[in-house]
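Most newcomers find our protein records easier to grasp once they have seen one. A record pairs a protein's sequence with a compact description of its fold. An example says more than a description, so a record of this kind follows:
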Amino acid sequence: MSQNPIAITNSQESDRIFANRPILSSQSLGWQGIEVKYRQMPGMAMPEMYAPWHNITFLCSMRPGSKLVRRSGGKQWVNSAQVGEAIIIPATMSYGGEWEKEIETLTLMLDADTFAGVIDESQDATNVEIIPQLVQVDPLLYHLGLGLKNILESGGEGQRLYAESLTHTLMVHILQHYTTRVTDPKTYSDGLAKVKLQLVLDYIEGHLDRDLGLKDLASLVQLSPHYFSHLFKQSVGIAPHQYVLQQRVERAKQLLKRSHMTISEIAYAVGFANQAHLNRHFKRFTGITPGAFRRG
């Protein structure tokens, strides 16, 4: 493909180039550091493009034996692609492709500055170089990507903390396995100081109705999301998003017994996206539905 690579400055521009709107998108959900899109695309030739974010694209569906052409920097690769295969493209590197038949893809767009500081917030994007991977099979990376897709399939609302926790884990994995930087994260064994832990727990208790974010909680105690997540789990025994879910269910139990609110109203009041979201987690924690709990 002889034309010069196309500069992309926002994800809507890529939508126009593909002439294809994503089936699922995180764009309106306020997730920090990442944007996720799931597409179903007919056979086409994709011109080479480059963007200011790191791009990870998974092949989620393709007819067996179909060939995928990948192009970057004047070079070309052709292979029989397989489901779960990843393409990892650093920010500003051009990439294009071609396929003959319909495919489904999951694309993760990682903010370069957020990625660089995922473990050490003093780092900037110029100090962290991702090694391009044009054909990469990484089951853990794919599993994390599918976790983000599952959140979108359930609606996405009220699950920002979980989404950002998955994003954080995914970024750390990429940093440790696909960059030129030798990463040796610090380890801590004492958890959060009691005063800091209580500050976080009180904030969560007072804001259960909000779509809490991982960085929001970490900022309360002046820690990176990476170390905050580790220290919180050491102190409480479970991850931040699991603790928030647990507290939302506990608040729902109180409202079910002490108020005349409908179950749907209670779901929104305690921070769940909808009644179905509450039902699923309520039953997971208690073994029964909210309705059965109220009648009991």
Q: What stands out?
A: The longest helix spans residues 240-258. DSSP finds eleven helices and eleven strands in the chain. The mean pLDDT is 90. The two ends are 68 Å apart (CA to CA).
